[in-house]
From TrEMBL:
Parts forming coiled coils: none
Any one GO MF annotation of this record: cobalamin binding
InterPro entries in alphabetical order: 4Fe4S_Fe-S-bd, 4Fe4S_Fe_S_CS, QueG, QueG_DUF1730
Gene Ontology CC annotations of this record: cytoplasm
This protein's pathway: tRNA modification; tRNA-queuosine biosynthesis
Cofactor note: Binds 2 [4Fe-4S] clusters per monomer.
HAMAP family xref list: QueG
Protein name: Epoxyqueuosine reductase
Ranges where the 4Fe-4S ferredoxin-type domain occurs: 174-206
Active site, per annotation: 132
Length: 309
């Protein structure tokens, strides 16, 4: 006989698939014991640089029951963003996740839809949706729910779909059937460590966030240190190098989400186009894009930094 936990879990996974998520896994909500000392050490060694927000809500990051009253289950979801087409070669590059509309809005709508379906089919379920802007260790939860393993580049990797996907969660107050973690399949590969332009992967599975190109081009609000000049490999917003070289990403397939398609002009931008970008063009091309996080001035700063001295 199928118990309710099994039935509800199957229903949630079917609904997640219908809503376009490529994977859905479920784990028991509770304190992340293994991650606690790791996070503490990482923060104490100042690997987060000027990202002060990483120090906030330490307890909540490790325990979802502090975020949602009576939390019993964490439903982790993956949404593919791997693009069909990429930027022209020899140009200033932006991370593929920022080609289309800001993922926060796209995913939040789907999570609301999933929570609505859960309430409709299961009954009144209390829960909250999270998309990487809240203190939730999303990669840890996704790994716990069997959606992949955390690789040497500290990204979640999947044998089936690689790593070009967003991670989101629903934390809910009902017990469900729980999935199991999968094994690590990085083996002896060091492709990501060898390829990182700024040597930000300081040892396997540990990234110094304050050395990462994404940190310098997105998070850092002041001037980029001059000693980094010449080491950004033309990345103007974010960086995909450790994902591009990962052997598991040969299994990445293009997404089917029209909202993630880029503005028609973006992929053809030459270096000259980037250097001459106006605020009006910036607004038009990146109207609802994650690139707006840097604002026009921030993007200009990054491009000026990349230009030959």
């Amino acid at each position: 006989m199928i118990d309710n936990k099994q039935k509800y879990s199957a229903l949630i996974k079917a609904e997640a698939k219908r809503l376009g998520f490529i994977s859905c896994g479920i784990s028991r909500a509770g304190f992340l014991e293994e991650e606690a000392p790791r996070l503490e050490k990482w923060l104490n060694e100042n690997r987060h640089g000027k990202m002060q927000y990483m120090e906030n809500h330490f307890d909540k990051r490790l325990d979802p029951t502090l975020l949602v009253d009576g939390a019993k289950s964490v439903i982790s979801l993956l949404l593919n963003y791997y693009p069909e087409e990429k930027q022209v070669s020899d140009t200033f590059k932006i991370s593929k996740y920022a080609y289309g509309q800001d993922y926060h809005f796209v995913i939040k709508e789907r999570l609301k839809g999933l929570l609505y379906s859960i309430n409709e089919h299961i009954g009144e379920v209390g829960g909250r949706a999270f998309v990487d802007s809240a203190p939730v260790l999303d990669k840890a939860w996704a790994a716990k729910s069997g959606l992949g393993w955390i690789g040497k580049n500290s990204n979640l990797l999947s044998k089936q779909v690689g790593s070009f996907f967003f991670i989101a969660e629903l934390i809910v107050d009902i017990e469900l059937e729980y999935d199991h973690a999968v094994t690590d399949h990085c083996g002896s590969c060091t492709a990501c460590i060898d390829a990182c332009p700024t040597q930000a992967i300081i040892q396997p599975y540990v990234v110094d966030g304050s050395k990462c190109i994404s940190y310098f081009t997105i998070e850092l609000k002041e001037n980029i240190p001059q000693e980094m000049k010449g080491s950004f490999a033309d990345w103007a917003f974010g960086c995909d190098v450790c994902q591009d070289v990962c052997p598991w990403n040969r299994f990445s397939k293009p997404h089917r989400e029209p909202l993630f398609n880029p503005h028609p002009d973006l992929l053809g931008f030459s270096k000259k186009d980037w250097e001459e970008i106006t605020e009006d063009t910036f607004r038009a091309v990146f109207k609802n894009s994650a690139v707006k996080r840097t604002k026009f001035e921030g993007l200009k700063r990054n491009i000026d930094f990349l230009k030959a001295p």
